[in-house]
Specification:
Elements: H1 4-28, E1 33-41, E2 47-55, H2 60-69, H3 71-82, E3 91-96, H4 99-113
Helix pairs in contact: 1-3
């Protein structure tokens, strides 16, 4: 269970990382929408798991490769944004959030099945 401090820091990091990705993704991946869907911070505030949602999903592998290669630059950009709020910038680990793809697959399966059992 996350503490109130973890939730506040996760919210701050999510907002600032979204701004960073909005700028970087627009220049590096034109026509691609990269959003920070979720941020989880460890209890010691030293580790941060960042979940990225990519649309269209076909470009998600390229975006994840880019984030792994540019991790130090992205962390430095984050440090510039939160330098007045946080003393230590957590280590960032990026993960692909495939919930949109999962949802699209369920919709496709329901349409293929024909009859909707929930009506």
């Amino acid at each position: 269970m996350e503490s109130t401090r973890q939730k506040k820091i996760a919210s701050l990091l999510q907002r600032d990382l979204a701004e960073i990705f909005r700028g970087h993704a627009a220049s590096e991946f034109p026509g691609t929408l990269v959003s920070v869907s979720k941020v989880r911070v460890s209890p010691d505030l030293g580790l941060c798991r960042v979940y990225l949602s990519v649309f269209p999903t076909g470009k998600s592998e390229g975006v994840m490769t880019y984030t792994q290669e540019q991790a130090p630059r992205l962390r430095a950009a984050l440090a510039q944004k939160v330098r007045n709020q946080l003393r230590i910038i957590p280590e960032l680990h990026y993960h692909l959030d495939d919930s949109m793809e999962y949802e699209a697959n369920i919709d496709r399966l329901l349409k293929e099945g024909g009859e909707n059992p929930f009506k």
